[in-house]
Design a protein that fits this description.
It is a single chain. Helices cover 48% and strands 11% of the residues. With 602 residues, the chain is an alpha/beta fold. The chain has a six-stranded mixed sheet with strand order 6-8-9-10-7-11, sandwiched between helices. Strands 1-4-3-2-5 form a five-stranded mixed sheet, with helices on one face. It has a three-stranded antiparallel sheet with strand order 13-12-14. Helix 14 crosses helix 15, helix 17 crosses helix 19 and helix 18 crosses helix 19. The longest helix is centred in the N-terminal third of the chain and has 31 residues. The relative contact order is 0.06.
């Protein structure tokens, strides 16, 4: 359907011009007749001759009617005692108050403003429509979802690297959309909703598009926030319209991104919980599984969120979102596959090993890996290289994990020396506890982000759990920098703040979440996202005591290690002052330590 041009809406402009003209005409022809202008002397002759029927006084401006039916206007002097003269000759008098002027102004604005407001609603209604069609103010309740035809969706499961388990679960949805009778013949109920849960950047939206591409059906895409408007009832109307469109084009997929914007738990709204968001959610619940028997035409609702804990329980129950598909952080194999997808079209040096790059990027999402390659390509372009080199990937990874190199910060010699010993203290603990800590990667005293120096380690493999010994060793490594400062300079600096913050967080998690405290036992006292802790004041004191005990014991053990390795500490600090950056291989050779596997991307 062709959309109307604004020039075809001439009738709106005609209404506005006519309304304004009508108001001006009425104002100018107050008594629907011509008005005769009189001199003051003529006016007095008419009054004294009893020819004036009525007058209307507005300060010195007087209008009125003669007894013969004609109208007049005249200006009288301020000293004229109008009331006594007019009363004597039985003339009817009306007095205009200043409020009448405001009334005329209000009427003028009303007559002009109403057509303008109608035109504004008309224009806004056109913007609310996403795919053309209706162009009236009554289209506000139309869905803002974008519909994609099967020919427009080129994404397939093979386009999505990694996420093998998630793709396996979603293949059932594809099969259902392609062959619904295959499941109905045995009495199986077809799934109505699938909830994709995962951290931002892990590919939830991409997987939803891949499902639509594999199923070869219509795909309606909308964000949860698109349902919410200022006007109450619009969100619910848009939900109804969205499902009506999906049923007309069945089989189809409705994808609601960031569903937590509309699907949060009810009961927190204003006005008794009848706010716009909750009404919209109620309509969504009814459409997915209400009293009316569901349409037999296959429609699947896919929704994505990274906050499943805040969703209303009625939304996540079986019968609405029947399945939950977790989209986790990519593992080593998945990261390598994702890197291979994103390096297509990028000129990469042949010495870059993507497997080792995947090893060195634990915890990266798919979006992070894409950004890593882009940052490396930008860095290579800035240096006019023919291909993206290993150094570019190292710089890009450090920039993303630590921060930008701060070349404008100039440290004094004392600050550089303290920083070198501080980072050497971290490195010595990491080198002396190889069985429980990740291999050392590099140490630098070049300021990056908010740090004056960095001691960087990389894991040998993906880890899905941590032992108590590992967590204690991590605390000791965090405390190594402050211990080195104390031993060498007999004074401390503020540089250990983030180290103490990290050590305190690990110790508190050991006590409150993982039951790694003999005094408090295997009880969970705190959970992520808890606003209030359900324990007594006495328990809180015991928690603080245990956290302090763990940190003090780790501090004592780390101090013993660094004191025993004082010679290596000095040697490493002096090398850092000279070179500013040392790789793990250089450190192993310098300190005569058997090297571990390195992740230098080569």
């Amino acid at each position: 359907m062709m959309r109307k041009s604004p020039r075809n809406n001439w009738w709106l402009w005609a209404v506005m011009v006519a309304a304004f003209g009508f108001f001006v005409l009425v104002r100018l022809t107050d008594y629907s007749s011509a008005v005769k202008a009189l001199k003051y002397s003529e006016f007095m002759e008419y009054v004294e001759g009893d020819k004036v029927a009525l007058v209307k006084m507005d300060h010195q401006q007087v209008t009125g009617a003669l007894k013969d039916g004609s109208y007049f206007e005249v200006v009288i002097p301020e000293s004229f005692n109008a009331w006594d003269v007019l009363q004597k000759h039985h003339v009817e008098v009306n007095i205009t108050y200043p409020g009448n002027v405001l009334w005329y102004l209000f009427m003028c604005l009303l007559l002009i403003g109403l057509p303008l407001f109608a035109w504004f609603l008309f224009r806004q209604s056109k913007n609310y429509m996403s795919g053309g069609g209706g162009a009236s103010m009554f289209s506000l309740g139309k869905s803002k979802a974008r519909m994609y035809l099967p020919s427009q969706i080129k994404t397939r499961f093979e386009s999505v690297a990694g996420a093998a388990e998630a793709k396996e679960d979603l293949m059932d949805v594809v099969d259902f959309l392609k062959n619904p009778e295959k499941y109905r013949r045995l009495g199986a109920k077809l799934p109505r909703g699938v909830l994709l849960v995962g951290a931002p950047g892990n590919g939830k939206t991409l997987l939803a598009k891949a499902v639509a591409g594999e199923a070869n059906c219509r795909f309606f895409s909308i964000s949860g926030s698109d349902f919410i408007e200022v006007f109450v009832g619009l969100g619910a109307a848009r939900v109804r319209d969205l499902f009506e469109q999906a049923r007309r084009h069945s089989p189809s997929i409705i994808f609601i991104d960031e569903i937590d914007a509309v699907g949060r738990q009810r009961g927190g709204g204003f006005g008794g919980g009848n706010d716009e968001r909750e009404q919209t959610l109620n309509q969504l619940l009814t459409e997915m599984d209400g009293f009316v028997e569901a349409d037999p035409k296959p429609i699947v609702v896919l929704a994505a969120t990274n906050r499943p804990d805040v969703l209303d329980k009625a939304l996540t129950r079986p019968g609405r979102f029947d399945r939950r598909v977790d989209v986790p952080y990519p593992d080593l194999v998945s990261r390598e596959q994702i890197l291979k997808v994103h390096v297509k079209g990028v000129t990469v040096d042949s010495h870059v090993n993507l497997h080792k790059l995947a090893l060195g990027t634990p915890g990266f999402t798919g979006a992070d890996l894409e950004a890593l390659i882009n940052e490396a390509a930008i860095n290579a372009s800035k240096h006019n290289r023919e291909a993206v080199m290993i150094e570019d990937f190292e710089e890009a990874r450090d920039r993303m994990m630590i921060g930008k190199r701060l070349s404008t910060i100039v440290l004094s010699e004392q600050e550089r020396t303290m920083t070198a010993y501080h980072e050497a203290g971290h490195a010595i603990i990491a080198l002396m506890m190889p069985d429980v800590l990740d291999p050392l990667h590099k140490v630098t005293i070049v300021p990056r982000g908010g740090a004056l120096g960095v001691t960087h380690s990389l894991p040998e493999r993906d880890k899905y759990s941590q032992s108590q010994d590992e967590m204690l060793a991590m605390i000791m490594r965090s405390l190594g920098g402050r211990i080195a400062e104390e031993l060498v300079f007999q004074k401390v600096s503020t540089g250990a703040y983030s180290d103490f913050q990290n050590a305190s967080a690990i110790a508190r998690e050991m006590v409150c979440r993982y039951g790694m405290s003999t005094a408090l036992g295997p009880i969970v006292y705190e959970q992520p996202g808890m606003a209030h802790f359900s324990y007594s004041q006495h328990t809180a004191e015991m928690i603080d005591t245990e956290v302090r005990r763990i940190i003090e014991e780790c501090y004592s053990k780390a101090r013993t290690i660094i004191q025993a390795e004082r010679e290596r500490l000095d040697k490493l600090a002096h090398a850092l002052l000279e070179k500013e950056l040392l790789t793990a291989q250089e450190i192993y050779a310098l300190l005569d330590i058997t090297p571990r596997e390195q992740h230098d991307l080569r």
